[in-house]
Amino acid sequence: MEHNYEKEYGCLMLKMPRELDHYAAEFLKEEADALLLKYPVRSLVFDFSDTEFMDSSGIGVIIGRCKNVRFSGGYVKAVRLNEQIQRIFQLSGLKKIIEVE
Amino acid sequence: MEYLANEMKMEFLALSSNEGFARVAVGAFLAELNPTVDELADVKTAVSEAVTNCIIHGYEQKEGSIWIQCRIEGQQMEISVIDTGKGIRDIEKAREPLFTTKPELERSGMGFAFMEAFMDEVEVVSKPREGTCVTMRKTIGKA
User: Fold this and answer.
1) Confidence band (pLDDT; 50, 70, 90) for A1?
2) How far is CA B83 from CA A5, B80, B127, in A?
3) N or C: which terminal CB in chain B sees fewer CB atoms within 10 Å?
4) Residue B64: CB partners within 8 Å, gap ≥ 6?
5) CA distance B141 to B32
6) Domain range enclosing B133
């Protein structure tokens, strides 16, 4: 599977899929965990610039990765959210858990 | 304005790869109501939640079929998402935000909360070992 990410200065930037539903979440989970195992980075950034759709399955993936990264003292944030994704973050309370830029 | 009544029914396999198809198909059916971008996103998210529930909980990711019935009347729409899976033992509990029976799958427990937030009305009928029917209603173009 093709990894969509960038790594620099101890930061891993993960490109989120166009539609982040249960189907995509399963792939993303595996991909993110494999990358985090390979590169034990200090910070993890979720890049939502391509994401047009997200449902509650996406929330589970993000919270799960947050827990893992923070457990090892790392830092997590989400960037480039469109309006729809921002609403999902707001409504789910994800905005209080993770920094949004 | 012309008064509109229309209906559609569809059946598909309970595969997570069909989630995208299901929400886009419902969205396309509603196009004649001229929903706003936000309204369309709301309905698609709600449908996605309901279908995901059928797959993960109703059929526990095993074989099964999902039915969607959609009816529009004037500016009102009603969508039913139906499975013949294991059913819900405690509907009230299932609807509580953050409640999930599958934390090991990293489910957030926000499925029903999202359906309720994005639709005007959500009705759940379920019987253990028989299945579940979630009916959601929304009026388009209220604002």
Assistant:
1) very low
2) 37, 10, 11
3) N
4) B13, B14, B54, B55, B58, B83, B84, B85
5) 12
6) 5-139
Residue B1 has pLDDT above 70, yes or no: no
For A74-98, write each residue's pLDDT tens digit. 889 999 999 999 999 999 999 999 9
Closest residue of chain A to B46, computed from CA coordinates? A55
- Residues of chain B with Cβ-Cβ distance to A29 below 8 Å are 106
How many domains are there within chain A? 1
For residue A2, pLDDT beyond 70: no
Q: A19: domain CATH number?
A: 3.30.750.24
Catalytic annotation present for B53: yes
Q: What is the CATH number of the domain that holds B130?
A: 3.30.565.10
For A69, half-sphere exposure in the C-beta direction (CA atoms, 13 angstrom radius) is 26
Radius of gyration, alpha carbons of chain A: 12
Query: For position A10, what pLDDT does the model report?
Result: 84
Domain count, chain B: 1
Contact B41 A84 (CB under 8 A): yes
* Residue of A55, A63, A88 with shortest CB distance to B52: A55
